[in-house]
């Protein structure tokens, strides 16, 4: 009887070698015993991983809720709101600069106008109640 050098003293495989009480066959006590042990170990590790992943998600949501509550309590703004306000301020600054250029151009035109020109010239016949003009 060949046992691959692991030893076997009977149907349970609990002789010399890795035989023993690990779920029937132990580590190599029978065909597929080592595979079953590692399959069980992998299953337990996978289960623990899924539990930890769920726990991580719960912790993240709890921390997020606390941060949002603290933000509201301290009257802080969210990044999106700050970005929107900065964009409005940038546009207002651009418009103010454009208007300043237009005002400067209008002031320059006023300063170069002839001094003897008046905004409204009165001439003959403009007022119908005056003598010499009109009806």
Give structural notes.
With 135 residues, the chain is mainly alpha-helical. Helix content is 55%, strand content 0%. The longest helix is centred in the middle third of the chain and has 41 residues, at 33-73. It is rod-shaped. InterPro entries: UbiK. It comes from Muricoccus nepalensis. It holds the Pfam family BMFP.
Task: Please give a handful of descriptors for the protein shown.
135 residues, mainly alpha, 2 helices
Concise summary:
This protein is mostly helical and 135 residues long. The protein has helices at residues 33-73, 79-111. The longest helix has 41 residues, at 33-73.
Gyration radius, in Å: 47 Å
Q: Compute the separation of the termini in Å.
A: 144 Å
In one word, what is the shape?
rod-shaped
Instruction: Give unreliable regions as ranges.
Output: 6-26
Question: SS-based structural class?
Answer: mainly alpha
What's the mean pLDDT score? Answer: 76
How many strands, which pairing sense, and closed or not: the largest β-sheet? none
Strand content: under 5%
Helix count equals 2
N-to-C SSE string, H for helix and E for strand: HH
Helix content: 40-55%
Number of strands: 0
């Amino acid at each position: 009887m060949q046992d691959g050098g692991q030893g076997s003293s009977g149907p349970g495989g609990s002789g010399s070698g890795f035989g023993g009480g690990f779920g029937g066959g132990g580590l190599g006590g029978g065909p597929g015993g080592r595979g079953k042990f590692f399959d069980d170990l992998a299953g337990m590790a996978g289960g623990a991983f899924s539990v930890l992943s769920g726990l991580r998600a719960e912790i993240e949501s709890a921390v997020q809720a606390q941060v949002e509550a603290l933000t509201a309590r301290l009257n802080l703004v969210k990044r999106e709101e700050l970005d929107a306000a900065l964009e409005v301020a940038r546009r207002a600054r651009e418009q103010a600069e454009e208007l300043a250029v237009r005002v400067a151009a209008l002031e320059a035109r006023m300063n170069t106008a002839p001094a003897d020109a008046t905004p409204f010239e009165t001439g003959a016949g403009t007022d119908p109640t005056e003598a010499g003009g009109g009806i």
